[in-house]
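Many introductory courses stop at the sequence. We go one step further.
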Amino acid sequence: MLHMKAKTKLQWSLKAFMLASLLTLLLLLTTYALYSGLEAQYIEDRKQRAQAELLNLRNNMFLLLGNQEMFTTLYGLRLVETLQEGSVPNLSDFQSYLTVLESEKQSFSFATLAMDGLIIDQYPEEGGRQVGFDLKTLPLYRQHIEHFMRQGSVTIDGPLYLDNEKAYLIFRYPLLVEDKQAWGLLSLYFDMDAFLHGAGLEDLSSEYRYHFAFSHLGGEETYTWGEESLGEFDPVSMMLSYSLLTWEMQIAPAILGTVVRQSLSCMQYWEPWSLLEPEY
């Protein structure tokens, strides 16, 4: 009698275990399906917001580059006026322009004035170049400087690394005299990291991963801001160019699911059959 009773209890326990296991499996599958759907919707929403953030950052970059391009042109024209008056310009004579630039742009580092490829003046004096430095020794002098000297417009170049291993963004304006003959070159150097912060990179949301890679036409030098790569995160990408400057911006949303994964992890410690075990 006792043997039959024990056997019946064992059979009941096995059935209860199988039923509880089936219910647990169904619950896990349902939870996983809900999680996958929520994650996919979350990522899609985040991508749309990331796209909007990239567009906003692009507009900020173009606005900042355009404003500085205009300032460089105005400053360059003042130097050209001095040349037309028969005098050799001096950067300190137009210190008011550079003082305004220093006060409004924390990224501004220094300015140089070159004649026939040789730097003849620098402001401030402790800038990143030396008076007498020959620009023609630069690897991309022909493509990035000489080629654009007769156009009479600003070119934007970078990243350019100097001896201090800091990356710079350079605004160049050719100084032309009669018959568009090139007399020299005005160059304004900006700390690239500080310049990008001024475009809003420091205000980017922590809900995303970022990878921005900057390069210049024909050059091997690059500047990366953010993570080295986002390839595995299926990022939203945008390729942009302005003058000689080219850059790729990538944003990837953070992955949802921490709470769900924690819940799934906790479920492995649940003993569902204990709830279905009959009482005698």
